[in-house]
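Retry 2 of 3 after timeout on previous attempt. Resubmitting structure tokens to design endpoint.
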């Protein structure tokens, strides 16, 4: 008799402005750990990212994973742990590039575990070749007319 375990769903939250090859690497590597990954583009009506823009970003990310049925993308507002629960996820997936990222994520994981009724955060370290890639760096380069294609995701086959 085979034991039935709950589906391991991870929620990968962010603003993804833009979704970079570093983000893609985290998702791709996490597929070996989870049954499904829900990429959540968070927005707050009182901040510059509108619901319409969040939905557009989620749709663009979903297009990258059309050949991978275990990945979906959606827009959400409110607390990330609430969106995580609505998605049926028991895990928050996060990527870490630096010690500063680690400290921030550790503190956030502690709070999310408390208010999220046991939702655990799983941290994957960024690959060395992606350590310098961040959304803000890509936006900065783009604002100066630099071709940022090398920092953006490739379409999955």
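Retry 2 succeeded. Sequence:
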């Amino acid at each position: 008799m085979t034991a039935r375990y709950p589906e391991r769903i991870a929620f990968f939250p962010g603003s993804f402005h833009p979704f970079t090859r570093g983000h893609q690497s985290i998702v791709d590597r996490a597929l070996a750990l989870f049954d499904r990954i829900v990429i959540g583009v968070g927005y707050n009506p009182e901040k510059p990212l509108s619901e319409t823009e969040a939905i557009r970003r989620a749709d663009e990310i979903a297009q990258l994973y059309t050949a991978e049925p275990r990945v979906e993308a959606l827009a959400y507002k409110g607390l990330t742990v609430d969106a995580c629960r609505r998605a049926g996820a028991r895990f928050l997936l996060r990527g870490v590039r630096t010690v500063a990222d680690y400290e921030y994520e550790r503190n956030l994981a502690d709070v999310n575990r408390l208010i999220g009724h046991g939702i655990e955060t799983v941290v994957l370290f960024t690959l060395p070749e992606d350590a310098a890639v961040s959304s803000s760096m890509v936006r900065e380069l783009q604002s100066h007319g630099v071709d940022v294609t090398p920092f953006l995701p490739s379409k999955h086959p």
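Attempt log closed. The CA atoms of residues 43 and 53 lie 9 Å apart.
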